[in-house]
Amino acid sequence: MRQSGNILVIGACGQLGTELVPYLCARYGSHKIIAADIQKPLAPFPSDFVLLDVLDKQSLGKIIKQYDIQVVYHLAAILSAKGEQDPAFAWKLNMDGLFHVLDTCVELQVKQLFWPSSIAVFGPTTPKTMTPQRCVMEPTSMYGITKLAGERLCEYYFQKKNLDIRSLRYPGLIGCKAAPGGGTTDYAVEIFHHAILYGTYQCFLEPDTYLPMMYMDDAIRATVELMEADPKCISIRSSYNIQGMTFSPAEISKSIQQLLPEFTITYQPDFRQQIADSWPKSLDDTTAQEDWNWKSDFDITKLTQTFLQYLQQNQPTPISKLNN
User: Fold this and answer.
1) Cα 65 versus chain centre, distance
2) Which of 28, 143, 215, 240 is catalytic?
3) Got the DSSP string for 106-158?
4) What sign for the dihedral angle of Cα 14, 17, 19, 22?
5) Strands, DSSP E only, in 25-110?
6) Is the pLDDT reported for residue 314 higher than 90?
7) Is 143 assigned a catalytic role?
8) Other residues' Cβ atoms within 10 Å of the Cβ of residue 258
9) Separation in Å, CA 49 to CA 35, 72, 134, 162, 231
10) CB neighbours of 249 closer than 8 A, spacing ≥ 6?
């Protein structure tokens, strides 16, 4: 079921939005896509772009009316590591922003809404391996708390307001076209840039920290496949588990060394280690497979080859450490 009507992507300049907007333009036509963010993009989008602070509900409504928006992808959020540095603002942006989008979509009769959740909703009491779709969820980071609250809000608005809202619990997202946005899994992006630029990387997690990961191409495809799925097939209105691959910093460094033998890695764990230790190692995404035929395409070998090839063909930009 292909989406109809104009599409608004909020948070378009982030790691996910940077790659989602061109994908949507190619699929539906640039004239139907509106990219929005609180800051201007570093490079032009193939679609129209508007400045938007999602905390400004009035401006959000004006944009939806002006462009006759029927589908919204709400991606704006403070991620896990940055959220721990300013938990009050993380709560404000993540929760008030979501409330504004939910209410405005209902008020203006927007047909469909996508909102991303995260593995951060899980906590130290959650089963670590093949984490079930439904299980104990006791997040210990402000980011995780807002995502769990957001899941409950999304299901509430579906049940009470009949809003067609859909969501994915993203693993760590690994994209080569944008800088990471302040997440605990960002080492898996930084490591490739540093491998090309410097030949070495200092990791902020311990070498045997296993986390679920997903290459951005898989994440974009999963997002659009979910949004295009027949509503009758959607059984989860909080957020779906989706699994890509699982690896540790030691394993991804060995994979890089297969192509760059001189690459070295050192370890200096920081506050993000505690966050990572509370998260699952792998996810059971059987429900997503059964409901809308989800299947990942990238493994660690294909990820490494694709990422390094891209950076070798496109000059990588140095990425500042979040704690600098």
Assistant:
1) 27
2) 143
3) HHTT-SEEE--EEGGG--TTS-SSSB-SS------SHHHHHHHHHHHHHHHHH
4) negative
5) 33-37, 48-51, 69-74
6) no
7) yes
8) 12
9) 5, 14, 38, 29, 29
10) 187, 188, 191, 203, 205, 206, 207, 209, 265, 267
Contacts of 53 (CB under 8 A, 6+ apart): 38, 59
Amino acid sitting at position 91: W
284, amino acid identity: D
* pLDDT for 321: 46
How far, rounded to the nearest angstrom, does the alpha carbon of residue 21 sit from its chain's CA centroid? 14
Q: What's the DSSP call for residue 315?
A: P
Q: 51 forms bridges with which residues in the sheet?
A: 37
> For residue 246, is pLDDT > 50?
yes
- Secondary structure (3-state) at 26: helix
The model's pTM: 0.92
Q: Beta strands 200-203 and 264-267: pairing type?
A: parallel
Angstrom distance (rounded) from CA 37 to CA 79: 16
Helix (H) or strand (E) holding 173: strand 172-174
Each residue of 35-82: pLDDT tens digit?
A: 999 999 888 899 999 999 999 999 999 999 999 999 999 999 998 888
Is there a contact between 127 and 135 (Cβ–Cβ < 8 Å)? yes
